[in-house]
Amino acid sequence: MPEQADNTHQPEQVGAYQTPLQTLAKKDNPVEIYAEDAIEWHKNEKKYLAIGNAKASSGSMSLTSERIEAFYNEEEDSAMDIKLVKAHRKVRITDKKLEIIGGQSAEYNLEKDYFAIFGKNLVLTSEKNKLKSNNKMEYWRNKGVAIASGKATAIKDAEFIIKGEKLIWYIDEVDEKMNVKKILGFSNVSIRTNNEVAFSDKALYNKDSGICKLFGNVKLQKGTSFLTGDYAEVDMNKGISKLLPAPSLDNLNENRVRALIDKTENHETNESN
After folding, report:
1. Domain edges within the chain
2. 223-243, pLDDT tens digit by residue?
3. 123, 157, 162, 185: which could join 189 in a potential S-S bond, CB 3.0 to 4.6 Å?
4. CA atoms in the 13 A half-sphere facing the CB of 231
């Protein structure tokens, strides 16, 4: 008798782009998976694979790329609860008026509502503000936090440019606009305005006050003149810079900031006032 082929590991095609695959990963915002070429169901790996102009969407969030993997857990009622989404090549993320492009790969953790995007030319755009990275971008949707690592650049409208090895954005939504309310910078920080350039180890910009605080190895340069010190405050609105006695850096510690961001329940930023 001829041997029968073993199809237990063969993926099953379950849909196409016009017919989204839905799963209640969140009761209020079900995840929808689309693909132009095919959607495969890999039962043994507990995942769906969307191929060709793939898209995953939930509420106001949309993730597109060439291929998308959606990993799920099976619930008691046989529902398939997606926990993790991976995207490969030409990654683009949109969320209301925020957009991230330039990703070669990305992961979206639905439980934390957290993205990690990787690529050499990452750009996050929110209104007239941009955050760039040549390595990694992180985005907590429900906490309004974005982190650029590597050679990072933040462009605040036409007001100033901040560069550093790690930049952290705090974003809030006011009147349907996504505003950058605070920016933290770590390691080899530089700030360029129309009038001067400033350098420091760390920096904190507060939109409400218009003040950028510079910590450690501070250098203020205007033309051929410069001032140096351990701490400075730059008033972005008035164009006034001050060298002042250095405050404690205990509240501007990168690891502490990171720990607070990664809390799953309470996200306070009292350390960066």
Report:
1. 7-112, 120-244
2. 888 899 999 999 988 888 999
3. 185
4. 10
The helix/strand/coil state of 271 is helix
In the predicted structure, residue 267 carries a pLDDT above the cut 90: no
Kindly report the pTM of this predicted structure.
0.82
For residue 221 the two structure tokens come to 């340069």
The single residue listed with the structure tokens 């990993």 is: 71
State pLDDT tens for residues 88-138: 999 999 998 899 999 999 999 999 999 999 999 999 998 889 999 999 999
Q: How far is residue 163's CA from residue 149's CA, in Å, rounded to a whole number? A: 11
In the chain, alpha helices (H): 254-261
Instruction: Give the E-state strand segments of the chain in sequence order.
Output: 12-15, 21-23, 31-34, 38-42, 47-58, 61-74, 80-95, 98-109, 114-118, 122-126, 129-133, 136-140, 145-156, 160-174, 177-192, 197-206, 211-222, 225-235, 240-243
120-244: what fold? lipopolysaccharide transport protein A fold (2.60.450)
| Position 260 pLDDT exceeds 70 | no
Query: According to the model, what pLDDT value does residue 259 have?
Result: 56
CATH class of the domain comprising 7-112: mainly beta
Length in residues, the chain: 273
Structure tokens at 134: 């040549």
Backbone φ, ψ for residue 257 (5° rounding): -60, -45
On whether the CB atoms of residues 39 and 14 are closer than 8 A, the answer is: yes
The pLDDT of residue 2 is above 50: no
In our burial notation (b when 16+ CB lie closer than 10 A, e otherwise), range 207-223 reads beeebbbbbbebebeee
Q: Is 272 helix (H, G, I), strand (E, B) or coil?
A: helix
